[in-house]
Amino acid sequence: xxxxxxxxxxxxxxxxxxxxxxxxxxxxxxxxxxxxxxxxxxxxxxxxxxxxxxxxxxxxxxxxxxxxxxxxxxxxxxxxxxxxxxxxxxxxxxxxxxxxxxxxxxxxxxxxxxxxxxxxxxxxxxxxxxxxxxxxxxxxxxxxxxxxxxxxxxxxxxxxxxxxxxxxxxxxxxxxxxxxxxxxxxxxxxxxxxxxxxxxxxxxxxxxxxxxxxxxxxxxxxxxxxxxxxxxxxxxxxxxxxxxxxxxxxxxxxxxxxxxxxxxxxxxxxxxxxxxxxxxxxxxxxxxxxxxxxxxxxxxxxxxxxxxxxxxxxxxxxxxxxxxxxxxxxxxxxxxxxxxxxxxxxxxxxxxxxxxxxxxxxxxxxxxxxxxxxxxxxxxxxxxxxxxxxxxxxxxxxxxxxxxxxxxxxxxxxxxxxxxxxxxxxxx
Length: 428
Ligand code: NAD
Description:
- This protein is globular.
- The chain contains 14 helices and twelve strands.
- The strands form two sheets. The chain has a seven-stranded mixed beta sheet. It has a five-stranded mixed beta sheet with strand order 1-2-4-3-5.
- It has two domains: 35-171 and 402-428, 3-Layer(aba) Sandwich (Rossmann fold), CATH 3.40.50.10860; 188-349, NAD(P)-binding Rossmann-like Domain (Rossmann fold), CATH 3.40.50.
- It is an alpha/beta fold.
- The protein binds nicotinamide-adenine-dinucleotide.
- Nicotinamide-adenine-dinucleotide is lined by residues 191, 218-224, 242-244, 251, 273-274, 290, 304-306, 328-330, 355, 358.
């Protein structure tokens, strides 16, 4: 899923190298942390419904597990690349470290398009993934989760295959399972809510009332829906939301200057996060080009869809009113744009901190599975808000103390924690 112009792994390495240099990390640690420690490239033969066999290329990478078992999603995508998986496994290490949960970074993927696979074929693919990786996965080794185009059902098939081979029940070997089958309440909302717990605390720190702010979102999928809902509940006004329209093969921005009604927009979206444009126009939403979300006169921009969206090429179109960029997506800003953001004094909430609510709740799911005792939603969300706010405060305070860009402050905390674990283990 690398876009042509920007390679996500090179982006991830560039971000790491900059902070490693500032921290004066010794060369052995740098070498270790700037790439995954283990890469498994494998193939999965799948018997198709028509009797033929198709062979799918798959990956599972572990960036670093010095602080605990590796954790990371499995993506199904026709344009998945090894470099995307490398970058995402690296970001997972920093994400777990910055929120201080005892897990490392991993990631997996299969080059496939689930739209073109029957459910039975998807099940055989998932079972094949578990069979091939049986010895590498486990609650104490590497714990997968859903990601782009994978869901709780895929996770259950992988779990079932793993348990069939092992002959026991190990619900903590995978997360993102459906509630009632080892899943945690609150997981669906966790990433979006986590974004807003942090935004809320930032606004408090800088003396802004959420009710006096406006925002524009890119994306209206799982993350954006729950982030926009909670932001609206705090009184914030969502002026615009953009999303992809599969039928037209392009994105649109839906705008209401007086503020979008999020529940109304949710009722107009399909399971892929696309809003029905005719119905929305019927309800008074203005239909604008896909990139118009970026140029709205708002206080807060929330990229919550794709990587590489905020680049030097589009930066001039960002309104001078924007004070905060809240990176809900993974890698929405290219490294060459960070300087421009800093020059304009825009506060940036970096992706691996901002969207860490998902993995934090996955960690809670694993803890609940290991205890075989499940918390109610209120308890999960209270623990989530506590963890996210604590992580944000540490990053914010460091950024103030040392006059650091918030991405660099978050990296400083995360990299130091991982480097320390590596040293304590005697690896370097
Ligand atoms: P999703 O698939 O539920 O939604 C994606 C949204 O992006 C959809 O509304 C889609 O229409 C929109 N979109 C796609 N292309 C677009 C374009 N060109 N212009 C505008 N909108 C476009 O995905 P999600 O789970 O909400 O994830 C969004 C981002 O957050 C991704 O970067 C993902 O890696 C990251 N993330 C997700 C989670 C999670 O728990 N879901 C956790 C951490 C990070």
